[in-house]
Amino acid sequence: MTHELRLDPLTREWVAIVADRQDRPNLAADRSAGGCPFCVGGLEAPEPYTVRAFENRWPPFRGKDGAAEVVLYSSDHQGSFATIGVPGARAVVDLWAERTEALLARPEIEYVLVFENRGALVGATIPHPHGQIYAFPFVPPVPAREAAVAAEHGCPLCTAVRDEVDAADRVVRDEEGWLTYVPYASGYPYGVVLAPHRHVESLAALDEAGRDGLAAALVDTVARYDRLFDREMPYLMWIHPGVHVHVHFAPPLRSADTPRFVASGELGSGLLGNPVAPETAAEALRALD
Ligand SMILES: [Zn+2]
Ligand SMILES: [Zn+2]
Ligand SMILES: [Zn+2]
Description:
Blueprint: E1 3-8, E2 13-18, E3 52-55, E4 67-72, H1 85-104, E5 111-118, E6 130-136, H2 141-153, H3 156-167, E7 171-175, E8 178-181, E9 192-196, H4 208-228, E10 235-240, E11 246-250, E12 253-255, E13 258-259, H5 264-269, H6 278-286
Antiparallel strand pairs: 1-2, 3-4, 4-6, 5-6, 5-10, 7-8, 8-9, 9-11, 10-11, 12-13
Bound molecules: zinc ion (3 copies).
């Protein structure tokens, strides 16, 4: 049982060794609600709820190394952002903002990452709609890189939102102050970014309209994904606060039945190869209105 953060001497980047998590519950193969710890009455949700956050029983790190929480999006076992409606998604956004602020208030926490792994293909072990939160004692490499770029070149999200609206061919949706687009240099087939037109740093800093706009954009994105291949689309999703808050979605499929693996040439070089042109992906997603 080894459980610690280790510094890779080749890259000087941290790796979380999490060798005591193999006994986590795995209900991925079972879509029924029987035995689900997140359904009302289950281990993690004894009382009725709309949305709920709690400490992860199998955290990759804890104590001085950070914290990990689980966020339940709905008490409906079969629910998702595509079905819980804008008020339901808004409740999730509010809980994300609240938990992020609470974790950042701890002296040892430097960065909070909200994310979701949806579907067995990306390792979700419980199908009940939920996401996770990791709180780090340092700013991790990807958001640190985004912040460094912003410091050197100005806010890249403000620029991207303006440029994508002008170019139009990678825009999926532009409503209520939030733009959904396939980035010009997207590394992921059908990957999208959701960003507010206004330069707002964090979820907590979004006003009422900004939060409603994000909720509507989340519902819209997952509904489009589920229609794209006519199946519940697996995806990776994460939210980057810090510079100009934005949401990344990265599905692990290149077509209905073909997984996209990040292969050796990509991992070994750090250069992602996207088999679907961003303009083609945007056109397909836009057409699913
Ligand atoms: Zn459930
Ligand atoms: Zn900005
Ligand atoms: Zn980002």
